[in-house]
Structures are given as structure tokens and as C-alpha cells.
Specification:
Elements: E1 6-10, H1 15-26, E2 30-34, H2 38-52, E3 56-58, H3 66-80, E4 85-88, H4 103-131, E5 135-140, H5 153-173, E6 178-185, H6 205-213, H7 224-234, E7 246-249, H8 260-266
Parallel strand pairs: 1-2, 1-4, 2-3, 4-5, 5-6, 6-7
Helix pairs in contact: 1-2, 1-7, 3-4, 4-5
């Protein structure tokens, strides 16, 4: 990546978003950061400025409100005249099944996780085409699009659609020099991985994490920094021929059929 690049990151104060902002800032990039929590966003901006002395603008806002999309893009281009990298990272979801989810929750989840990335991408690509400049769009998906748990139907649907959107946008904008790629993390140690509750309101995240980790060949979840490193690499010259695909970053979870506790029962000396 170039030191003068402008990088726009949504969901910037969450685990992956924060790590991604830090990684791009350390590479000398200018940042446009957005999230719903103004105080957390301000604190992140001050931290990055202190650590890296990089130009940063932060714009708190709610991506479920369609009017904010235009405001975000307009501010970014008004400040620097370009957005070289767009990272569609923001996410929102509830923990419930298709049996109980209300249509309002379904629609809000899709607005934040799918519709906002689609139209932020459209807005950035339109302006970059007019400037005749290349760009990279990174959509942050989830391995749950392929391995659903049955407990976040709108989130799962949005992430599956986001993977298809990544391919569609790559085809649409490729001849303009705009690459569109995705990352599909498995279990990552973030707040979204620690809010699972049972029917009585007890937090059962630790048990779920243990169960998932038992199925990961590398034996652990990812750190946000590992996902951020992949995102940053995908925007670099080293990935210049990669577009229209989503990189799975799950420690081998997706292709594994059975947990290692099961394997050890069958072959105790080999696993």
C-alpha cells in the first residue's frame, strides 16, 4: 500500500475495525473512520494520531440510516479528494432464530451488513471512476455464511449475499481498475464473539468458543490483528491480481469434518 492512500473503514472501533485502522495508520495511510459510538471513535482517533501522527477524520453515524452514507462519502472526498481503499467492516446482529426474529430486526441487519456496503461501494467507485483512479474495496464477511449456527438468520443471510456482492462488484468495476475482495474470518476474539446467551440470559460464549476451537485444525481463534493483516495485504501491490474472491481466514475450520475430541477418541496417539 502507498503511504499517501486514503482508507475509509466502517465499524472502526470494533475488534477487527480497530486493528485494521492501526495497521493502515502504521503504514502511513490517511484514515476516515466511522462507527456509532462517538466517544470510542474520538478515543481511537486520538490514539492513532498520537502513535502514528497520521491525518485522520472520524465521523460518528449509524449505517442503518441511509442518509448517513452520502454524508460519509461526501466528507471523505471533500477532505482528501479520494478514497483509495474502502473497508466495509461494520456489522450488527441479534442472537435469535428464524422462529422468533421480527422483520424490523431482519431489515436493520441487512441495511447495515449488506445494503450499506453495496451503496458505499457504489458511491466510492463512481467517484474513483470519474477521477480515473484505481481503488480497492474490501468486504468483511464471515465463515458463518458457509457454516451457519442457526442463531443469527439475518446476519447469515447478509454475509452470504455479501460474498456474492463481492464477485458482482468485481465484475462491474474491474475494467476501471477497481478491485473488490472479501475476507471471511472464522472465530475471532472480538465483542461479537462474547455476547452469546442461553434462554435464561446466562453468557455461554466460553462454551461455544471451546466447541468451535475443538474443530479448528490450528487449535485457536484468530486475533483481530491477523484479520487486519490480511485486509491490508489484499489492498497492496502484492495482491494486485486478486479480485472477485473472498479469502477464508478460519484456521482450517471450514473443511474440517469433526472435532479433535472426536478424532482423539478414534486415534488417541495421532491427534
Amino acid at each position: 500500500m502507498n503511504r499517501d492512500q486514503v482508507v475509509l473503514i466502517t465499524g472502526a472501533t470494533g475488534g477487527i475495525g480497530r486493528a485494521t485502522a492501526r495497521t493502515f495508520a502504521s503504514a502511513g495511510c490517511k484514515l476516515v473512520l466511522t462507527d456509532t459510538d462517538p466517544s470510542a471513535l474520538s478515543a481511537l482517533e486520538e490514539e492513532l494520531k498520537a502513535d502514528h501522527c497520521q491525518p485522520i477524520i472520524s465521523l460518528p453515524g449509524d449505517l442503518s440510516e441511509t442518509g448517513f452514507w452520502d454524508e460519509l462519502i461526501a466528507n471523505a472526498f471533500a477532505k482528501w479528494g479520494t478514497v483509495d481503499v474502502l473497508v466495509n467492516n461494520a456489522a450488527w446482529r441479534t442472537i435469535e432464530t428464524m422462529r422468533t426474529i421480527p422483520v424490523e430486526t431482519w431489515e436493520k441487519t441487512l441495511r447495515i451488513c449488506l445494503t450499506a456496503p453495496a451503496f458505499l461501494s457504489q458511491a466510492v467507485a463512481k467517484r474513483m471512476e470519474a477521477l480515473r483512479r484505481p481503488a480497492v474495496i474490501v468486504n468483511v464477511s464471515s465463515m458463518m455464511a458457509d457454516r451457519p449456527a442457526g442463531t443469527s438468520p439475518a446476519y447469515i443471510a447478509s454475509k452470504g449475499a455479501l460474498n456474492s456482492l463481492t464477485a458482482e462488484l468485481a465484475v462491474t468495476y474491474g475494467r476501471s481498475g477497481i478491485r473488490v475482495v472479501g475476507v471471511s474470518p472464522g472465530y475471532v476474539d472480538t465483542a461479537l464473539s462474547r455476547d452469546y446467551q442461553d434462554a435464561d440470559g446466562n453468557n455461554v460464549s466460553a462454551r461455544l468458543i471451546d466447541a468451535v476451537s475443538d474443530n479448528v485444525p490450528l487449535g485457536r481463534g484468530a486475533s483481530p490483528e491477523e484479520i487486519a493483516a490480511a485486509i491490508c495485504w489484499l489492498t497492496s501491490e502484492g495482491a494486485s491480481y486478486i479480485t472477485g474472491t473472498t479469502l477464508v481466514i478460519d484456521g482450517g475450520f471450514k473443511p474440517n469434518f469433526s472435532g479433535y475430541s472426536v478424532k482423539r477418541n478414534q486415534f488417541p496417539d495421532q491427534f
